[in-house]
Write a structure and sequence with these properties.
There is one protein chain. By secondary structure, the chain is of the alpha/beta class. It has 2 domains: 130 residues, Rossmann fold (3-Layer(aba) Sandwich), CATH 3.40.50; 119 residues, Beta Barrel (Elongation Factor Tu (Ef-tu), domain 3). Helices cover 25% and strands 29% of the residues. A 6-stranded antiparallel β-barrel has the order 8-9-12-11-10-13. A 5-stranded parallel beta sheet has the order 3-2-1-4-5, sandwiched between helices. Helix 5 runs antiparallel to helix 6. It starts with 15 loop residues before the first strand and ends with a helix. The structure holds flavin mononucleotide and adenosine-5'-triphosphate. Adenosine-5'-triphosphate (ATP) binds next to strand 1, helix 1, strand 4 and helix 5. Adenosine-5'-triphosphate binds next to strand 1, helix 1, strand 4 and helix 5. Pfam families: FAD_syn, Flavokinase. One of its GO terms (molecular function) is FMN adenylyltransferase activity.
Length: 279
């Protein structure tokens, strides 16, 4: 994972910034970044709600350094004070890029027209970016994921939705009764709707085709699990504690089976569907 590189950047060199929450770093956010100059930077206002690309996972989706501002620390500033803060943090600031609906200052009282009044440099306002006539926003991408509409979410994201998890020990019956899986514990990321997904899994810097399951293991211990089975690889040894899953397509919902044999047959069927997709 590319951690924020902003600490290594000399703020004096930054001459343009894009401002927003930027959860997801989706295609509309990228359009804002396209309007930055060579020495641009991203100002990410942290509300604590980011779940598509939580704070420490955002940098990998842009070459521009990200500087984080905690909303709690700036929410009492009025519009003029907020811009003053940015100008004092970035002494060479000449351009600000925001979207059509950008609000700033205490109680979100200031709008884009106010920005033009209080900032004495160039202000670039990006009109609402849409895909198939549908506005692109993080909140809609979250809804797509929660409905299992991964392909739609991925189009809006401009990339495959990816989560990071910690490798944990499972029940230990997968390999014996079904197929081997890597079990994960997920903290900060939004999980798509429960079910079975064609996916890719990144383990120890290698990306593998996979099939992933999210949900309560209704057929075995009933516990909630995030599990991924790597296709065509037996006995993969996982060294790194952190494993990534990219979601591609939901193939079915989670189900309760009357016997282990029925679950096993369904899992083998899922694997065949995934193999047809990949190979
Ligand atoms: C592709 C796939 C599909 C699965 N589908 C279901 C399911 O529909 N219902 C269910 O109860 N468990 C499902 N599971 C979870 C299995 O119950 C689980 O892998 C098994 O209990 C082994 O768990 P373990 O890895 O913790 O040992 C699925 C697992 C995989 C890999
Ligand atoms: N569809 C869009 N078109 C143009 N600008 C956008 C669009 N979505 C967001 N922006 C701009 O990107 C910046 C970041 O916005 P923000 O983090 O609120 O994204 P969002 O996708 O609208 O999120 P949410 O759905 O949670 O409100 C802001 O300057 C905002 O105006």
């Amino acid at each position: 994972m590319k951690r924020s590189s902003s600490i290594l950047i000399n703020k004096e060199n930054i001459d343009s910034i894009a401002i927003g929450g930027f959860d997801g770093m989706h295609i509309a956010h990228q359009e804002l970044f396209n309007n930055l100059s060579q020495n641009g930077a991203i100002i990410s206002i942290e509300t604590g709600y980011a779940s598509l690309t939580p704070k420490n996972y955002r940098q990998e989706y842009s070459r521009f350094p990200i500087f984080y501002y905690d909303l709690q620390n700036i929410k009492e500033l009025n519009g003029i004070e907020f811009i003053k803060l940015l100008k004092s943090d970035f002494k060479n600031l000449k351009k600000i890029v925001v979207g059509f609906d950008f609000c700033f200052g205490k109680n979100r009282a200031c709008k884009v027209d106010d920005l033009k009044k209080v900032f004495d440099g160039e202000v670039v306002i990006i009109s609402e970016i849409k895909l198939d006539n549908f506005p692109v926003h993080s909140r809609y991408i979250r809804e797509f994921l929660l409905n299992g509409q991964i392909e739609q979410a991925n189009r809006f994201l401009g990339k495959e939705y990816k989560i990071y998890g910690k490798h944990i020990i499972g029940q230990g019956i997968g390999k014996k009764e079904f197929v081997a899986t890597i079990n994960l514990s997920i903290d900060e990321f939004l999980l798509p709707q429960n079910g079975v997904y064609i996916s890719k899994t990144i383990v120890d810097d290698c990306e593998y085709n996979s099939i992933s399951f999210l949900g309560h293991r209704q057929t075995t211990d009933g516990n909630f699990a995030v599990e991924t089975h790597i296709l065509n690889v037996d006995n993969l040894e996982v060294k790194d504690n952190i494993v990534q899953i990219k979601f591609i397509k939901q193939i079915r919902e989670n189900k309760k089976f009357d016997s282990f044999l029925e679950l096993k047959n369904e899992i083998l069927n899922d694997i065949n569907i995934a193999k047809k997709y990949f190979y």
